[in-house]
Amino acid sequence: MTGVAAPARLDVRADACPMTWVKTRIALGRLAAGDRLEVLLSPGEAAESVPRSAAEDGHRVVALDDLGPAEGVRLVLEKADGGEAAWP
Amino acid sequence: MALTDDQVARFSRQLLVPGFGEAVQERLLSARVRVVGADGPATAALVALVQAGIGRIWVDDEGYVAPADRQGWIYAPDSVGSPRAAAAREALSPLSRHTVVEPYPAGGVPDAALVFASSAAQGIAMGEVARKAGIPHVMVEPDAEGGAVVSIPVGAPCFSCARSVAGVGRPPVAGIAGLSALAAAELLHLLAQPVGMTGRRIDVVRGVPTTHPTARSPGCACAQPAVPPSLDEGG
What we know:
Chain A is built from 2 helices and 4 strands, in the order βαβαββ. Chain A is α+β, with helices and mostly antiparallel strands and about 90 residues long.
């Protein structure tokens, strides 16, 4: 899936786990439900774990594009409705 | 105000906990928490509050470090005999540059309170001060089997309604650090989710927790809206 517009952008290619997901989660927290976030990730672990963690939090993975070894991976997320899960 | 990169790195694991997030962490960093009682049983909670990023912790204890306090987590041998509030500040301040620890300033208005009362009378008095101030508070009741933690969000049944009939005691039982840390977690819970919380009591018997909703005693004054008084009362 390509060509999806994403108004907010985050580059975590210089970060390692868990900061990749921490920064993505914070960026999502600043958006309204339905807004989209484009995240640039390094290939490998981050490209696998960040989309999975986002989906587990209820966000929609709109696009996941391999841009090549130099550019990494482009992930587009759509923020879920509702707030964060509450504590028990 | 967004978290700084330093704060994001410092609290990264906590930011991943369900119910947490940037807004909650900012709330914790701007919160002032009054901790009543700082002897051994309170020390695990004090450490937990510092590590969680509470912005300002006011230690309300006019006593002195006793040899028995060294069963806790923070008091060094050479601190015995020194004022507890100052000794707690000295021990806790190096743990995080994001938290200010200081003795409770007379008239200080906290956002929440955590009470390790040294007697039933002090517990009831401090609970009433917090209720009238309209702030969430958590009360700790150690006993020989473990104890209880009572969470009292604003408007919930008061400590007098929810406390143990056995009253507050503080024997040096195994597991007190767990009860203490549980109390800190409950306070963080109340700060993280200030709206829509209900009162609850967690009884811990030999390490096994059981949670109950608290209920208001018929005719208790806590059914009336709080009118903030001076916070120096009962200290």
